[in-house]
Write a structure and sequence with these properties.
single chain, alpha+beta, Pseudouridine synthase, Archaeosine Trna-guanine Transglycosylase, Chain: A, domain 4, 3 domains, 10-stranded mixed sheet, 8 helices, 16 strands, 23% helix, elongated, PsdUridine_synth_cat_dom_sf, tRNA processing, isomerase
Length: 293
């Protein structure tokens, strides 16, 4: 059992039907502190990996949010919705009964790579200081701008008929993508390309950066045994590591630059293994991004 208030990460396997904020509230009670945040929300319908930071580790979350994510999802072709998932109101669609597996697979393959994606209108993106989803709830028409995202890979596991009359086609997929990619938008856009509409009926996040379902704990498990991944272990898992000598560690503790060469954002450690800071390359030296000691 981890002591309350211990800084580090809590990797939760979020159940369906509750918000990410609900999970944060539960972990605040279990950790005995209000200083808990998350590295990217999951919709109430979605399940899977939700990374939370406790105490000092909340400062690590902004850097973790930029890492790639992996998902399992079911895309339903033949019907669009107002939210691009099963929680939205249905929109006009067209039967997908004529779609064969080959055309579904080839269409989804076009979303692999660097693409321009319009986020779903009920996203948490701010429009003139107000969340897009709140504007939609208030009855406003929201049009978001396309932005670049990357789908590193997308594997179609199964394509099958669905619906009482077989008017839908469901595709089970797994994908790995950059931060900021909306899987719901891929379902919507695939349906648009095929002229039948599309939305998600299931979404499970299987990994955020290096943290997968293998290290995630259910809320029930955390209630019985509250487990925190230490700040030292969390940083070592998520970033390249640089081991320092005593002189270098002393300099890093006060945020001084170092005359070392780094390949991107790097976690720096004291001789005893304590995580000290994140540094990044700046010209011919390395400079502090965030100091944690």
């Amino acid at each position: 059992m981890t002591e309350p208030g211990t800084p580090g990460l809590v990797i939760v396997d979020k159940p369906a039907g509750i918000t990410s904020h609900d999970v944060v509230s539960r972990v605040r009670r279990l950790a005995g502190t209000r200083k808990v945040g998350h590295a990217g929300t999951l919709d109430p319908m979605a399940t899977g990996v939700l990374v939370l930071g406790v105490e000092r580790a909340t400062r690590l979350l902004g850097h973790l949010m930029l890492t790639e994510k992996s998902y399992d999802a079911t895309i339903r072709l033949g019907l669009g919705t107002t939210t691009d998932d099963a929680e939205g109101e249905p929109l006009d669609g067209a039967t997908a009964a004529h779609l064969g597996g080959a055309v579904v697979r080839s269409t989804l393959a076009t979303f692999v790579g660097d693409i321009e994606q319009v986020p779903t209108s009920v996203s948490a993106i701010k429009v003139d200081g107000k969340r897009a989803y709140q504007r939609v709830r208030d009855g406003e028409q929201v049009e978001l701008k396309a932005r670049p995202v990357t789908v590193h890979d997308l594997v179609v596991h199964d394509v099958r008929r669905a619906g009482e009359q077989g008017q839908y086609v469901d595709a089970d997929v797994s994908l790995r993508c950059s931060s900021g990619t909306y899987v719901r938008a891929i379902a919507r856009d695939a349906g648009a390309v095929l002229g039948v509409g599309g939305h998600l009926t299931a979404l499970r996040r299987t990994a955020v950066g290096p943290y997968g379902l293998d290290v995630a704990r259910t809320l029930e498990h955390l209630t019985e045994e509250f487990a925190v991944l230490s700040l030292d272990a969390a940083a070592r898992a998520a970033f390249p590591a640089l081991e320092l000598d005593d002189t270098g560690a002393a300099a890093v503790r006060v945020g001084r630059r170092l005359d070392v060469s780094l390949n991107g954002l790097t976690a720096l450690f004291a001789p005893g293994g304590q995580f000290l800071a994140l540094y990044e390359p700046r010209g011919d030296h390395a400079a502090a991004v965030a100091v944690f000691c």
